[in-house]
Amino acid sequence: MSEKKTEARFIVASNRLPFVLARGPDEEWTIEAGSGGLVTALLPVLRNRGGLWIGWPGTWEEVPHLHELMGRVGKELGCTFRPVPIDQDLYHDYYLGYSNETIWPLFHDLQSRCVFEPHFWQAYMEVNRRFADEIARRVRPTDFVWVHDYQLMMVGEQLRKRGVTSRIGFFLHIPFPAPDIFMKLPERQTLLAGMLQYDLIGFQTQRDRRNFIQCIRLLTKNIRVRAVGSLHRIWYEEREVDVGVFPISIDYRSFHRRSEEPAVREWADEAKAALPGRALMLGLDRLDYTKGIPERLRAFRHLLRSRPETHSRVNLIQVVVPSRAEIAGYDELRTEIEQLVGAINGEFTRRGWVPVHYMYRSLPSLDLLGYYRAADVGVITPLKDGMNLVAKEYCACNADGKGVLVLSQFAGVSAQLGRHSLVVNPYDVEQTSEALYQAWIMPVVERRERMRRMRRVIRRQDIFWWVNAFVRAAIDRHLEDFPVLEEFIPEMMD
Fold this sequence. Notes:
By secondary structure, the protein is α/β, with parallel strands linked by helices. Helices cover 45% and strands 19% of the residues. A nine-stranded mixed beta sheet has the order 5-4-1-6-7-8-11-10-9, with helices on both faces.
């Protein structure tokens, strides 16, 4: 293969590799390709271009013949996967500890839930060093390295310490907090200085970028910040760092196409027929205190109490997907949700009508798309969210255009869809209840116009637009500039 075709590669680093390692009943390990927006967006960029994806393989157990398994899936997907080993104790302190009991609640403005333990930070740095070691062994000066999310914020600094001169970008998928909240982090200055070792830092919203720049100005000496086109440029020591806003999205065409499949249409029709004459209001969330599920349930209860005409005519379908069961507080949250569901159903259930249909499980693809298509109202009311792609998925699957989106003002997606949805403060039970009522009585003409405009935004700024926008800002290149190789052979593990 020619040098021209191998001179520039795309290297992705994320907490998890984009596949699932599973051990069957016969104790044999298998690998299945994962799904989700990041996988959908980035695999085509890496495929057959010599690309690398670096991450934790999803288990701390020793996996026999791991290199063969990864080589096989790498050949199928057209890129090289490199595992970063993390043992169980380190995983606990780095991922469950610093990432999800310190950074996650703090960056979601829920500092009362934070746990500040020095050994959590030490574990976090150790894992970031391991990622940097793996990247540094592979990277060439012409490569572009793209690091993802809050678990790996210090990888850029560790790469610079190892003498890596390649362009390095970082994208934060969760919100960035305002200075008065960020100041509570013991490692705040170290973390900011580390982030300034990237060449491009991407955020979901203007608010997140503004918060970051305010923190930089407050906590970092001898910096200058100036708007340069759509970016903000920071001059720090001898470095220039660009900071941009790149709202992540979904594969709109894929969701729309799949929602039109006969099996999905039939499923949605059956769901509507099973609840005749009812408006279906859909909440779909991971089990997490940032999602505002108890607040949503209280707002729905207020709707039923204040608007008796809704009785037997509306249903809330609340799906909660299990998540992070190892973290303290999540079991209590599940108990609170289930007690609220029981209390609402106990108060309002009538013959032939149970107001809340509650599920605690992951949904198969057919059920998920069917609910998106069947729901008259999508209820997306997190207390804080970086983006929230469920809102975009719901709109993409709303083929008849009659759905209404009730949306939290604190979800990143409200910056794009807020003008055409019913925006609420999820802490305000009465306001959210009134929005649910307005969604229920909204005329069809208005529903369709609002949904048409939201779908247009998502269609234009889809997941591939997001990747292209970030890569263009980082290295002034398009995806097509990473050439496809005539033959791709995944690198073997050491």
